[in-house]
Amino acid sequence: MLCPCCGRKNEDLQRGCACGACAVAAPQTDAIVELPRIGRAAWGLVGVIAGLGSFLTPWLVAPALLGAWASVSAYRRARRDPARFGGLGFARAGVALASLLLPGLLAFGVYHAQRWQAGRQESARAASRARMLELALAIQAYQRERRALPSPQLTELRAAGLSAGPIADSWGKSLRYRPTGELAAANPAAAPLLTQYSIVSAGEDGEFGTADDLVLRDGVFVPAPPASGK
Which of 40, 137, 212, 215 places its Cα 20 to 30 Å from the Cα of 121? Predict the structure, then answer.
């Protein structure tokens, strides 16, 4: 063994060297000491904690799922081979947090999906109401000009250039128009009109006479009758 101070060869530095140097501890060995791995447990916990932000930013669901998987995997490895894999406390914390986070994210996602579906249907209903009002304005314009309501087929509107063709609701089903108005007296020029007509949309289910029908009567939206005819 060489003395690190003078470079002389010495068999035992514990007794000292001729230069006066003396070893203060046992010489180091070249043996590699393998420490327990804690990387997966630590990253799993970090991923689950980052997943808490997915309530605000949806793309953080991916780190939450990866973190949950890493925490469960690290927990199993640490229990199976603690000499090689450590971080059992990190893994336990990640698993516990993931068991609360993932059900919460699922419930949160279902809630938002229901809200999205409800908003989508409400948008469709609003668009259908707009188309019904558009048809009602065309009918009223024809009535002011001809002193009569058009037929249920609306051929008079198309002939007068007030409508290009059958108007469908947002679900693709044609609106149902029914005139019921008559003149109040024999002289149309002197008598007011009884503007009685209805425009009905079958609603989301596509069936007339159900609770989700949209009913426009004499230019005013009214609730659908509980047992309206189909």
Answer: 137
